[in-house]
Structure to design on (314 residues):
């Protein structure tokens, strides 16, 4: 990955200088929904936005790669070592959120599902359609998380972000752009976000909406299985059909490599059985892409994020 042999030591020295908490050679599988995969050479826990900004700045200056780990629900880490520094936003400033009238101010590591529940209890409409999406705030905003009942982008009022050079900036609504599973956050690191919601006197209706969305997901998706949600993005620009329908029509439900299998419940989910490996999931993804391209002439794009690893590294 273009890092010298002293890079891990440099990363630790940098973190020591900043006073940041970290661990070495940490398995990442337990921190992801797939539960398998490689290890982080260095796993860091910045204490607040200022320390995160200083860490980002120093890593950029030292050419140390940085990855941010959210809830791990949309992530696959292949076997091997993730070099550089993996950042986890689990300190209180990043994990907490507050309701201020019709706004919710949340740290980048805050749990989206908890925020959705709190918004419904407070009679604030907007996020209930995102029920059942497992994500941190930062991950959800970055990829404009959503589903059949809406996306998070329309409710983001502002984002506190850190530029790759360490500058802390606030991006307001006019500066933010959201499209299908994409935002213009780019290489910035999300420290916090503010959501603007709509007050309603009909809280029971919000609760019913949340329940109906959850019921729909439980009936149409393999919620109990080990997966990372939808494996591929819907190719909206070239087909009115969703990725799941395209995969199903290509006869790929039940396709299995090792412990990974295309779900028979929803073809856009790749589930992992006990004993399976991250490499099995990658093999199934690759095979699905090849066969859908051959059957439909459509190139599916992964929705699951796959981190680079240094395979075979000690």
């Amino acid at each position: 990955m273009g890092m010298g042999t002293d890079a891990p030591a440099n990363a630790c020295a940098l973190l020591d200088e900043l006073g940041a908490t970290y661990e070495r050679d940490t398995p990442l599988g337990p921190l992801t929904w797939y539960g398998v995969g490689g290890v982080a050479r260095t796993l860091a826990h910045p204490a607040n936005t200022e320390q995160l900004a200083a860490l980002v700045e120093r890593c950029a200056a030292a050419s140390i790669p940085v990855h941010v780990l959210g809830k791990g629900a949309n992530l696959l880490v292949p076997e091997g070592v993730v070099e550089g520094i993996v950042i986890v936003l689990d300190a209180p400033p990043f994990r907490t959120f507050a309701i201020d009238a019709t706004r919710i101010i949340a740290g980048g590591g805050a749990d989206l599902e908890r925020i959705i529940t709190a918004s419904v209890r407070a009679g604030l409409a907007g996020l209930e359609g995102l029920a059942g999406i497992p994500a941190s705030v930062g991950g959800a905003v970055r990829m404009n998380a959503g589903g059949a009942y809406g996306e998070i982008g329309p409710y983001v009022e502002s984002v506190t972000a850190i530029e790759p050079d360490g500058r802390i900036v606030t991006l307001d609504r006019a500066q933010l752009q959201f499209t299908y599973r994409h935002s213009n956050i780019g290489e910035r690191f999300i420290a916090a976000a503010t959501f603007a919601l709509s007050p309603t006197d009909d809280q029971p209706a919000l609760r019913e909406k949340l329940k109906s969305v959850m019921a729909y997901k439980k009936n149409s998706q393999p919620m109990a299985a080990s997966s990372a949600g939808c494996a591929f993005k819907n190719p909206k620009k070239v087909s009115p059909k969703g990725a799941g329908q395209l995969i199903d029509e290509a006869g790929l439900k039940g396709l299995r490599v090792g412990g990974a299998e295309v779900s028979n419940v929803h073809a856009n989910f790749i589930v992992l059985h006990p004993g399976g490996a991250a490499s099995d999931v990658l093999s199934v993804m690759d095979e699905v892409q090849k066969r859908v391209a051959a059957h439909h002439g459509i190139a599916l794009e992964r929705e699951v994020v796959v981190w680079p690893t240094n395979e075979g590294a000690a």
Observations:
- The longest helix spans residues 278-296.
- The chain is about 30% helix and 25% strand.
